What does this fold into?
Amino acid sequence: MRNKLALCTFLLSLTVAYAFSQEKNKTKTSKQQGNPIFSGWYADPEGTIFNNKYWIYPTYSAKYEEQVFMDAFSSSDLRKWKKHPRIIDTASVKWAKKAMWAPSIVAKDGKYYLFFGANDIQSDQETGGIGVAVADKPEGPFKDDLGKPLIDKFHNGAQPIDQFAFRDQDGKYYLIYGGWQHCNIARLKDDFTGFLPHADGSIFKEITPQGYVEGPFMFVRDGKYYFMWSEGGWTGPNYSVAYAISDSPMGPFKRIGKILQQDPAVATGAGHHSVIHNQKSGKWYIVYHRRPLGETNGNHRVVCIDEMRFNEKGEIQPVKITFEGVAADPLR
Ligand code: FUB
It folds into this structure.
């Protein structure tokens, strides 16, 4: 009898231990870590959708002299990412020597155009600035389209870096760009080989909002133009993203507030972002880089995605940066 009781107690404790371990596993899978979304030091991610796939084009985040190529990443559900190595490198862009930064991409007439910064020029006397490369596929290989930079001078004080290629609702394309706390908008020619003047005759129109540092991004929602940018220093913890809303891509843009920043429990230096909208699920995502806790090296940046929400007035809600990331959101 005593033996039977001991056996029962033993079996019961086994069952409890098993149930507990199952519960622990369940917690692990439902809280799966999704951020960062792929491994390696990468920054300035531009997220977009081509042919029912999500694509991310980041800066390879290393010493400037090592930034001589770019990788891209694709996914059909936002969770599993495939790396496409070296979609462009300086071997095919003769004037670019280093600091290939902040790719921005558009598809037009069956081709893919990749705008990028190179050389981190500090004055009009240096070679470099913003270039454009072209390919037949989103994964490249991209070849220099002009054999020289598209913008190689400072205009209105804007360093020619951090370009964003924006397609307006009427089909016109603009380049919105600028570092050193100045942002310009310039209307692209149809073949992206240069610029057309604005209505007032100018080519580079300054639209800098209060607090702007670099990393501009624009999208349209319900007919309104949302302009977003990065603030603070990119090597520090306070790097962040703020935004404004206007009726026109030319502004005026009045700063509304910060929507992305560090969380001392998760990561620091969250900034230089882009936005993806899945029209099928209706979800909006912010793709951005941040620095893991404890990292102080400026280049140690990783790419993450979190959900971006709006309130009933159309304002962007402050984003909660997470380790979990986002759930699968297939495009098909
Ligand atoms: O990655 C190089 C530079 O860091 C970018 O151009 C800036 O926007 C900052 O993110």
Observations:
- The helical segments are 2-30.
- The radius of gyration is 23 Å.
- The first strand starts at residue 42 and ends at 50.
- Residues 5-30 have pLDDT under 50 and may be disordered.
